[in-house]
Amino acid sequence: MTFSSPGFLFFFMPAVFLVYFSMPKGSRNAFLMLASFAFYFVDAGLVSVVLLGSVIVNAVIGKALHSTPLGDRPRLILFVGVVANLLPLLYYKYWNFLQGAAADAIGASWTPSSIILPAGISFFTFQGISYIVDIYRRDSEPAPNLVGFGMYHSLFPQLIAGPIVRYVEVSHEIQHRPVRLVEVHDGLIRFCIGLAKKIIIGDNVGMVADRMFGIPANELTVGAAWLGILAYTLQIFFDFSGYSDMAIGMGRMLGFKFPENFEQPYRSQSITEFWRRWHMTLSRWFRDYVYIPLGGNRAGPIKTYFNLLIVFALCGLWHGAAYTFLIWGLFHGALLVVERVAKNMFNFVPRGMGGWAATIALVMVGWVFFRAQSASGALQYLSAMAGMSRAPMIDDAWNVVTPDKILYLCIGTVIALLPPGFGRNALSTEARPVAGPVLSLGALVLFAYSAVLIAANGFNPFIYFRF
Question: C or N: which end of the chain has fewer Cβ atoms within 10 Å?
């Protein structure tokens, strides 16, 4: 069930919140856990047992780690817990990829296994690992009961595509979260903004991206190639940040304060800055649970560069079990290494308009690998972007670029490049008497227009639902 589907918008979400607000506080965790499993079961069916198993395993491991004094035994318990989290992910997401890679290495043929990928398995796996590692490090206490942890681990707003919420960030709200009308109001506005980002901007520019990426390589002009990657650059930002806004908004309505996931990443003046602004909860996860345990930057520059490449190779594969994602991750890792070398050896840090132009161009190059179906297809697309294609202009390829699509591309570009925090103070205590009614009316208009587009065009799954 996707947040932008009519069933969610007009049935599941209103019903869940109506029941939630009307029931005693002591029963809300159990209700949210059941509602979240129902939400997951609609699409996952019997594969929901993977999520249930993750809840039980991590709850048991967390209690065991907390009750065992520091020493060798907790390390063994932690190892068992991490392996137990990773095994389902390796099987469901990477088994076919690993078989294919092995077959490619020896030049053999193979037939992919029929494996149904549980939605959001990458997200709740990382969430489970962060939970037990934080308990092992004594950074967090375990959940007091299975219901509380089960609700946290399966909570439907952030279950499928994040943000990756650590238990320590919401542990207080799990036990104490009074319903405040002002929080519900702010959460509704954030939800409507996220829905509009996805439906109005993301889906419309996505039509342009799909058309341009669907053109055969020998027919792709330089203009079509650049238009396609511009459209996809906007699509993935508005699609994923829109989902994050919807998740954060629903969390706010339920009494939770989820961490922010985006901070205007396309304004970044370096790749280093980009990864501090893009999918921030994932970046912090890799920093705290992979990069720093590998040694971070404490063992000299060479080890630092190696650690960066490992982290971003894993980051790429986390997004998808394909060579294109691995290349995308290594591409960003290599760019971060280059920036580190430039800073360490020449005291050069990209900045200003030059830094921004180079950064956004490199990000767009990376998105080609992220979007393409194969590495060879990505290279062909990049060659067209570089002007190496001599394909004639194909009129029907541009039929999708209607005036409304041009308008959405322009609006999306402007919004993506607005200063960080633009409009964030609109709901402050001082501004609320004036801005509150205006934002409420605006959110209502955005929701209504989004609903009209859904009725006319249908709805598309969020891009990150695949991960």
Answer: N
CB 451 within 8 A of CB 9: yes
Catalytic sites, residue numbers: 319
Coil, strand or helix at 419: coil
pLDDT tens for each residue of 275-297: 999 999 999 999 999 999 999 88
Q: Is this model's pTM higher than 0.90 or not?
A: yes
pLDDT tens readout for residues 376-400: 999 999 999 988 877 665 556 677 8
The conformational region for residue 121 under phi > 0 = left, psi -120 to 50 = alpha, else beta, is: alpha
CA dist list (Å): 454 to 13, 243, 251, 371, 412: 16, 16, 23, 24, 19
Residues 6+ apart with CB under 8 A from 208: 227, 228, 231, 400, 401, 405, 409
Flag whether pLDDT at 429 surpasses 60: no
Over residues 17-55, the pLDDT tens digits come to: 999 999 998 899 999 999 999 999 988 888 999 999 999
* Closest of 331, 304, 296, 302 to residue 316, by C-alpha: 331
Q: Is 107 left (phi over 0), alpha (psi -120 to 50) or beta?
A: left
Per DSSP, helices labelled H in 23-120 are 28-44, 48-67, 72-89, 95-106
